[in-house]
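Input.
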Amino acid sequence: MKFAIIAAGEGSRLAHEGVAVPKPLVRVGGEALVERLVRIFGNNGADETVVIVNTIHPATGQFVRAMQERMEPGRLRVVFKTTPGSMYSFREIAPFLADGPFCLTTVDTIFREDEFARYIEAFRASDADGLMAVTDYVDDEKPLYVATDGELNICGFHDACEGDRYVSGGIYCLTPRVLPVLDACMAAGNVRMRSFQRALVAGGFRLKAHPFSKILDVDHVADVEKAEAFLRTAPAAR
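Output.
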């Protein structure tokens, strides 16, 4: 199984708040965000991790290249491309994910490692087209609400709460069957990840929700402090 990290954003909000390093290099729990994800993915049996970074911040590319040199050959692939958004980044790395199931996330997701391990185990045992990480903890500027039935099948994605319990956590376990939908969305000019997820539901793909207690995004300086506090209360990694 492959894993992928979208780390090509500019991190403009953190920069405007005085953070001197690019977002992927912001340290939480003693590790750079991108470093933490690569480690966790390795602990969960990643055959290969694909990381896309932009060319605006050379320090990120240098950091990831140094990680690559320390790892076993073939375990970490680095794609250098400046893109206007996460969907564009996803499309750039999709060819490397087309040969089997994969897990995709943006670089700034913070979660409990034990919960993530259970999530990956559930996906490996599932026959669904996608297993989406969700949480009932809402701390996002523009949350994407996830409608589910009693068996956690996903029925829709909403910009405003329509009685939905969960919001998207921004972590997606998917099969290659969904990739043609990505291409169709991009061709139609629907370039937001939530548009892609809605298209999956409209296309009849079977998506299930997998609840996490909490998933945080690091968009602001205050989020770093929240993430540090959250990880201090989380169980030790297994």
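The longest helix spans residues 58-70.
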